């Protein structure tokens, strides 16, 4: 009953049209055809007047055209004695909004599913929030210990309170029950836990985490209750960032949706011309109305938006958040691609190969100093340096101040007063003139370390090319990408062997953010898609025709700058996005032309007097439905949906 009330309140004109139609049928049954015609005709003219007001407003804004046909058809049908045909056109107009809402809801199903998964509540360990924040630096300090066993939990569970996720603060200890969502970004306090992170990363296998490891919001806990400590508030957590991107995508409208407007004026002129000629040649005014009732194509108004929303929903099913339908249009025409290297073409998780200390420094000291500074870096390689130091059991030194220089490196001031710099050799030479580059083998990269004004050494690592990189680039070329370019902040000795292995002939190395923007702006042919993942890629992602962010690791700046965010850590999403863009535009154009073609055929039939107005109006309703169902093909084939859902 509630749903019925919602439908009635949302679409009152639909209900009114049905009630007027029912009343007219009752009058016909009561042998009052004249009264029935007056009732239906006056109602139709009233709706036409209401629509005309909106039409005039649109025309004054420089838009519109198709409403002219609908209003003219209603008035003409009533004037030539076809009020019931006019009522069917009215029903088409008033029911069009309901039909569009249904189609949009169907096409956006994958997008809205992500929104519905957003965590709403968190289970906080009661009475420990203040203490938890004071001990936030030590994830091993389990706040559940000694918390008592009273409250909402079981006898083996500490006292808890359920709070809105917005009430969680950094440092709050949280209990995550089996099968529950992690409400905010956190670190694991329990010794070990297993999480399902497939909705965030696309990895189907459960992920095992140890004490102190980061757990992203939106991950699903395994079979045992665990304790975590919040490291971010809800608004800054990973899943909420995804939600904001999805809301932006769901609320957007494609520029190509206006593609229908390109055909509005020519189609209106054509329809009026056919109707006028039919009237003039036949001498029958009814021909004018018969032509126009089949010249009100909802496909031009609805099918294109539905197709683009369907394409965005299809992309979301594969972890691709497309922020606007205009991006899908650009994807359908993309001809060049530029790539960052680290974390984009490579895994971004390099392993330690060797340490080359400078005179006066030991290997362990070089790694420990570098890791102490890299804790404060957002670069994709920083985490690997820190992980290598921790795996070897090195204790990091206390840092009193740190600052990152985008694309160059990080500077950290230690508690003992020394200044440690970690980054590219070209940058470090400005502080440590004696620094010399080290010899590297193909596929290796070096991270240089300086202490005060002296070189401390280099850390040599190897970053593996993504397993799917070769096949993804090959597929891009098959899809018509004519030019591929690598634009990286890394040195040429590291970048060129990787590019050669992937068939990328053009490499621009040691690029700063401004260099990347300049280089990408000059690449032809266009449109161009730029693929990156880090903070230093944010400017060039915003400057490119299409910015594609590998956002699986929460690179916020890159995700916000990009037009497409790949939530899954796989480059295979790139050719998939291009394919979805092309499919979507093709289906949208097919839907538009289908509506035009069928309407023109029906107009010609009506012009020769073979299509009564009432039958033509009902046929037009059928055409609308066919075109919209065709547009829903952009959601993707059923087999693809089943494959993604694992059925």
From TrEMBL:
It is a multi-pass membrane protein. Pfam families: E1-E2_ATPase, Hydrolase. Residues 132-160 are annotated as: Disordered. The chain crosses the membrane at residues 263-282, 288-309, 592-611, 617-635. Keywords: ATP-binding, Cell membrane, Membrane, Metal-binding, Nucleotide-binding, Transmembrane, Transmembrane helix. One of its GO terms (molecular function) is ATP hydrolysis activity. It is found in: Cell membrane. InterPro entries: ATPase_P-typ_cyto_dom_N (IPR023299), ATPase_P-typ_P_site (IPR018303), ATPase_P-typ_TM_dom_sf (IPR023298), ATPase_P-typ_transduc_dom_A_sf (IPR008250), ATPase_P-type_domA (IPR059000), Cation_Transport_ATPase_IB (IPR051014), HAD-like_sf (IPR036412), HAD_sf (IPR023214). Residues 135-147 have a biased composition (Low complexity). It comes from the Bacteria. PROSITE patterns: ATPASE_E1_E2. One of its GO terms (cellular component) is plasma membrane. Belongs to the cation transport ATPase (P-type) (TC 3.A.3) family. Type IB subfamily. PANTHER family: CADMIUM/ZINC-TRANSPORTING ATPASE HMA2-RELATED, CADMIUM_ZINC-TRANSPORTING ATPASE HMA4-RELATED. This is Heavy metal translocating P-type ATPase. It comes from Leucobacter massiliensis.
């Amino acid at each position: 009953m509630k749903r019925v009330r919602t439908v009635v309140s949302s679409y009152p004109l639909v209900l009114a049209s049905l009630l007027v139609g029912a009343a007219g049928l009752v009058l016909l049954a009561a042998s009052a055809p004249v009264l029935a015609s007056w009732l239906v005709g006056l109602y139709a003219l009233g709706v036409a007047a209401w629509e005309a007001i909106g039409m005039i407003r649109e025309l004054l804004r420089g838009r519109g055209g198709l409403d002219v046909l609908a209003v003219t058809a209603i008035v003409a049908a009533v004037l030539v004695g076809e009020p019931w045909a006019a009522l069917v056109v009215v029903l088409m107009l008033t029911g069009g909004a309901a039909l569009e809402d249904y189609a949009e809801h169907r096409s956006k199903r994958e997008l809205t599913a992500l929104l519905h998964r957003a965590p709403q509540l968190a289970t906080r360990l009661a009475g420990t929030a203040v203490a938890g924040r004071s001990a936030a630096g030590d994830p091993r300090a389990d706040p559940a210990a000694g918390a008592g066993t009273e409250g909402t939990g079981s006898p083996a569970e500490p006292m808890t309170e359920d709070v809105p996720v917005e009430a969680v603060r950094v440092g709050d200890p949280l209990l995550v029950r089996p099968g529950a969502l992690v409400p905010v970004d956190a670190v694991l306090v329990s010794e070990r836990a297993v999480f399902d992170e497939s909705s965030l990363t696309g990895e189907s296998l459960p992920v095992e985490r140890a004490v102190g490891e980061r757990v992203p919001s939106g991950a699903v806990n395994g079979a045992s209750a665990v304790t975590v400590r919040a490291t971010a508030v809800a608004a800054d957590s990973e899943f909420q960032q995804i939600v904001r991107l999805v809301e932006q995508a769901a609320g957007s409208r494609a520029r190509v949706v206006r593609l229908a407007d390109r055909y509005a004026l020519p189609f209106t002129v054509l329809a009026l011309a056919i109707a006028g000629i039919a009237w003039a040649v036949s001498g029958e005014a009814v021909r004018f109305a018969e032509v126009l009732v089949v010249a009100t194509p909802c496909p031009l108004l609805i099918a294109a938006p539905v197709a683009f929303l369907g394409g965005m929903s299809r992309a979301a099913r594969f972890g691709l958040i497309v922020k606007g339908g205009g991006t899908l249009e650009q994807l359908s025409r993309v001809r060049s691609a530029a790539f960052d290297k680290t974390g984009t073409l490579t895994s971004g998780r390099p392993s330690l190969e060797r340490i080359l200390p400078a005179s006066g420094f030991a290997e362990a000291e070089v790694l420990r100093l570098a890791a102490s500074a890299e804790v404060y870096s957002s670069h994709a390689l920083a985490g690997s340096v820190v992980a290598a130091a921790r795996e070897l059991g090195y204790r990091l030194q206390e840092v009193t101040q740190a600052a990152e220089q985008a694309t160059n490196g990080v500077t950290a001031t230690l508690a003992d007063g020394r200044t440690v710099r970690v980054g590219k050799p070209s940058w470090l030479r400005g502080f440590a003139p004696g620094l010399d580059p080290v010899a590297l083998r193909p596929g290796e990269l070096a991270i240089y370390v300086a202490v005060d004004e002296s070189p401390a050494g280099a850390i040599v690592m190897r970053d593996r090319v993504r397993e799917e990189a070769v096949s993804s680039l090959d597929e891009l070329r098959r899809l018509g990408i004519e030019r591929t370019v690598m634009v990286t902040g890394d040195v040429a000795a590291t970048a060129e062997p990787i590019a050669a292995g992937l068939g990328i002939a053009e490499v621009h190395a040691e690029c700063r953010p401004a260099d990347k923007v300049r280089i990408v702006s000059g690449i032809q042919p266009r449109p161009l898609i730029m693929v990156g993942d880090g903070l230093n890629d944010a400017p060039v992602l915003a400057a490119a025709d299409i910015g594609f962010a590998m956002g699986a690791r929460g690179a916020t700046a890159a995700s916000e700058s990009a037009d497409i965010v790949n939530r899954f850590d796989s480059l295979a999403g790139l050719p998939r996005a291009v394919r979805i863009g092309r499919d979507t535009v093709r289906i949208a154009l097919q839907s538009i032309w289908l509506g035009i073609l069928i309407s023109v055929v029906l107009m010609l039939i009506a012009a020769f007097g073979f299509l009564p107005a009432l039958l033509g109006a009902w046929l037009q309703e059928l055409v609308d439905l066919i075109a919209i169902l065709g547009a829903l093909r952009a959601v993707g084939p059923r087999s693809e949906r089943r494959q993604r859902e694992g059925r």
